[in-house]
Amino acid sequence: MRSFLVKIIEGLHQKDKNLFMYLNQRIKCRPLDAIMPRITHLGGATFSVLLCAFLYIFGKEEARIAASEAFFALTGSQGIVQIFKKSIYRKRPYMVLPNVNTFWRKLLKDHSFPSGHTVAGFCLAVVFSLYFPAYRYAIYSLATLVGFSRIYTGMHYPSDVLSGAFLGTTFALLTHAIKKLIVS
User: Does residue 36 fall inside a structural domain?
Assistant: First the structure.
């Protein structure tokens, strides 16, 4: 039974690497090379925190409520991300795979699983979509692009990104549900 599970896990990891190589190398082109390193920052700490602060300070009541909820979701989810990264020692793709396209001179040294940028992108997307549903398609598209950019720039495997999207979505929904319980 154990060898059967090992084979399944190895097979999934191989598919993950193959999909990573396809997205990181085979679809490489100049327009994506120009935009993906910029898109990826939409899931970074600086952008996420500044967006919440800006909306909280300058937004109307609903924007302020959404911003504070998003901030709490981000804070909690990023704590979980750090716990996973410190307990699941998965090296980033550019550290173990040959010829990975990366876009920075200074590369990250922490672990790959899950993608914190994707977690942040989906935390923001879910919370802001709950408060501003008219913009949900644009917001979710941006979050998805952040996740894709993490693969394209060589920082994460597809499973890191999918796990990040799941974690960000779950944490945002949980935060929203807790806020509703407290307010009511």
Answer: yes
Which pTM was predicted?
0.91
Residue 164 lies inside a defined structural domain of this protein: yes
Torsion of CA 98, 101, 104, 109, to 10 degrees: -40
**Per-residue model confidence as pLDDT tens for the chain (184 residues):** 667 766 777 878 889 999 999 999 888 889 999 999 999 999 999 999 999 999 999 999 999 999 999 999 999 999 999 999 999 888 999 888 888 888 877 777 788 899 999 999 999 999 999 999 999 999 999 999 999 999 999 999 999 999 999 999 999 999 999 998 888 7
Note whether residue 69 is domain-resident. Answer: yes
88: which DSSP letter? S
Question: For the chain, how many structural domains are there in total?
Answer: 1
**Domain with 100 in it: what CATH number?**
1.20.144.10
Angstrom CA distances, 158 to 62, 92, 127, 134, 141, stand at: 34, 11, 23, 29, 17
Q: Give the residue numbers spanning the domain of 163.
A: 32-183
Examine residue 26 and state whether it is found in any structural domain, yes or no: no
* C-alpha to C-alpha distance for 34 and 12, rounded to whole angstroms: 31
Token couple for 10:
């190895």
Angle between helices 61-87 and 45-58 (to 10 degrees): 160
